[in-house]
Amino acid sequence: MDIKKVIKLYQEDKLSINKIWKQFKRSNSYIKQILLDNDVEINHKNRKKYIYTDEHRRKIWEKSKWRKSTLWFKQTELTRRKNMVWHLKRRITLDDIEKYNDIEKLIFLNNVIWRHRKYFEDDVKYIKYLDKFYFDDIFNNIYNEWIENWKCKWKLPSLEHLLPISKWGTFDLYNLTFTTWFENRAKAEMTLEEWRKFQKDTWTKSNLFYL
After folding, report:
1. Which of 12, 44, 55, 81 has its CA 20 to 30 A from that of 149?
2. From CA 153, how far away is CA 145, in angstroms rounded?
3. Which of 152, 183, 159 minimizes the C-alpha distance to 108?
4. Which stretches of the chain are assigned E, i.e. beta strand?
């Protein structure tokens, strides 16, 4: 294999590693290793993009012009539930989530804890979390208000720690509740008692406050 040519194609002709390995019928990692072994700096700046010829464009158009659009297609609720179960990667079945009638609300509750999922790895705790808030009056009031107000940012249901994490609060279910995004930001790192005292002392009121 002509190593000098590989280096020239990368440094002078500005071809990407992807185009070079296809040209030499070698693997991507093989070409990359050659460049590293010869102290060639690997970057993605100013790499030549693939240029489609008119003939190539015509062939693409011929193949795709009769292809049916799927933009109008909307998944059935059953399909969405199956997708959710599959993406959860848990020992949870369709039967386990059958009692939650509103798929949109169910997906919302799942998405809320996505970045905190390490605290909900236990399947039993996950189902208890859904049970606690799916049927919770406070959460449902906030959620419905948010929907009715065109998903206003300030009214977005936000997971709240009664005892903040910064003050040794945990993700145990007894320490979790829901409030609006606005109140969550206003409460900041106050405990529930401190927040209520602050509201009383400053006469702070809002229809966005639920705690």
Report:
1. 81
2. 11
3. 159
4. 157-161, 176-180
Distance, in Å, from the CA atom of 88 to the CA atom of 42, rounded to the nearest integer, reads 37
CA dist., res. 148 & res. 193, Å (int): 30
Dig out the tokens for 24 from the structure.
């030499």
Residue spans of the domains in the chain: they are: 3-64, 68-116, 136-211
Rounded to two decimals, the pTM is 0.67
